[in-house]
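Reader question, answered in our methods column.
A reader sent in the components of a multi-part assembly and asked whether the whole thing could be modeled at once rather than chain by chain. We filled in our standard form and ran it. Here is what they sent:
COMPLEX SIZE: two components
ENTRIES:
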Amino acid sequence: MTLSLQAADDSLLPPLGRVGVWFNDPDNWTGPQGLLARIVEHLEYTAIVLVIAVLIALPLGLLIGHTGRGVVLAVGLANAFRAIPTLGLVILLVGWLRPLIEFKGAVPGLLQKGAFPFFVPVMIVLVLLALPPILTSTYAGVKNVDPAVRDAAKGMGMTGWQVVRKVEIPNALPLIASGIRSATLQVIATLTVAAYLPFLGGLGRFIKDGTGRLLDPRYGYPAMVAAGLTVALLAVAIDGLMNLVQRAVVSPGVSGRFSKKDRTAVTSSPTSVAQVVQE
Amino acid sequence: MTIWSYLTNAQTMEWLVTTLWLAAVPIVVGLAVALPIGWVASRYRWSYPPIVSIFGILYTIPSLVLFLVLPGILGTGILSPVNVAVALTVYTIALLARTVADGLSSVSQDTLAAAAAMGYTSRQRLLKVQLPLALPVIGAGLRVAAVSNVSLISVGSVIGVSQLGGLFVTGYVNSSVTPTIAGLIWFVVIALVFDAIVLLVVRSLTPWQRAVSAR
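And here is the structure of the entire assembly that came back:
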């Protein structure tokens, strides 16, 4: 499939200005193959991955942070996953799992007929990708809770579970949230790889299908760049939205929104999570 | 074909050379660009928030998007590995600018005052005191950048850039896991090697760290 590409003279690419033309054509927005439908698919896939990843990583991170056990294992695994190329893992799991998956029907509103055996491996890989940032930030958030605060909670007669629920989670929430946000950004960006497989949707579809029609000024390159830019905008928009949710959920006492002094300590950006992961 | 032949055949070796080049150049160039940017952010406090947020946003751009948009900006072919190299350099700068700034800022004021009292000029203080003391922090950031860069290289295969990710394409097209496993092995090995190189360089440049921990 790369052979046809190499034969084409890609110096004849349509100019970047064609991207604007592409965005301006309503036909590119509507219908089951349109931009809007692909955005919905992209968000559906992202939501599924994040729900699964949070359900696994959050309790595990709390457990590790609360007990202080398994730290080396968690950090080591997080670092190891960073080294594994997503695309390779997707293709490997498709090779292994596809023959084992019996269900090949459609899932209304989510998957077309035949997509399921490809969908499962992609979801597994993306969950594996989303786990480390959530796990490490949860663990780091709980670990960073002032020991005096924890002791005070114990002194008041709280049980271990009460300390986790009433003290550690609220205090760790800014870091937990930034871990989930960084996982979300990563999943939205990486989901484009899913389109490498047949039947699957999402914004990567334009990119993969565009490689076959690279020199077509009405689809190929303009559609690829347009979809790519949409992914980036989607990532920024979702991150902004999650920032609002975070502000609403985190206690003002913790976020420091009442005292100007601590404000810088809580605002989080994607790179601040990279810093956390390094620990 | 056996896994060994996929690991070592002529095509793989050709891809390996491209991949090593794509892993090495962005790290070196990225560090060279990030050092002055990080220094500015640590030296002039007002510049820290804008620099950190601009590079934070750069880091959120999906790699595939950069691979696609760069040929339009640079005038390179869409399949040119140069796009991948430039994109990874951008990510390296985005990750390291903040790390360098934080590393330089973390050096204690007492240390800098002591150096000033010993007659160091501000330039000497930066190069002989502040930068060496910030090295462990910068090195940690460099390891993250090196390892994540290596795994990003393979994404170029989605649009057809020729490098070791081609083994994944081969595996997919031939419905065989053997080339895919060979590709994964190579990428993980390269990531480990680059991680080890950064670690060794930082260790050899910071001998005092071992002297302190040995005590």
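What stands out: The first helix of chain B runs from residue 3 to 8. DSSP finds ten helices and no strands in chain B.
Send us your own complexes using the same form.
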